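Task: sequence design from structure.
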C-alpha cells in the first residue's frame, strides 16, 4: 500500500519536474567575477532551491540544538529543586 502511495506521488512529481525543465531550458549567463558560466535556467533555479533548503535545515538545526540545551538545563534545575523539596519535607517533620 505504501509503495502504491509513493508511486502515486512520484509520477506527478516527475512530470512536474520534466515540464519545469522543458519550460526553463534557455541558457542564462552567471557572472562570477573571474569567469562566466552558461547554464539552463532550470539548473540555476534548482541549485538556488537546494541551497535554500540546506540553509533552512542548518538554521532549524541550530534552533533545535538550542532548545535541547534549554530543556536539559531545565531538567537539571527540576531535579535539584525536587531534591531540595525532599530535604525541606524532612525538616518539617
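Answer:
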Amino acid at each position: 500500500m505504501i509503495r502504491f502511495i509513493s508511486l502515486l506521488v512520484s509520477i506527478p512529481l516527475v512530470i512536474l519536474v520534466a515540464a519545469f525543465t522543458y519550460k526553463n531550458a534557455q541558457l542564462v549567463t552567471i557572472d562570477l567575477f573571474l569567469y562566466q558560466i552558461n547554464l539552463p535556467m532550470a539548473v540555476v533555479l534548482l541549485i538556488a532551491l537546494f541551497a535554500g533548503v540546506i540553509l533552512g535545515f542548518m538554521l532549524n538545526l541550530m534552533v533545535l540544538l538550542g532548545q535541547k540545551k534549554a530543556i536539559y538545563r531545565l531538567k537539571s534545575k527540576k531535579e535539584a529543586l525536587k531534591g531540595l523539596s525532599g530535604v525541606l519535607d524532612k525538616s518539617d517533620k
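The chain has one domain: 2-92.
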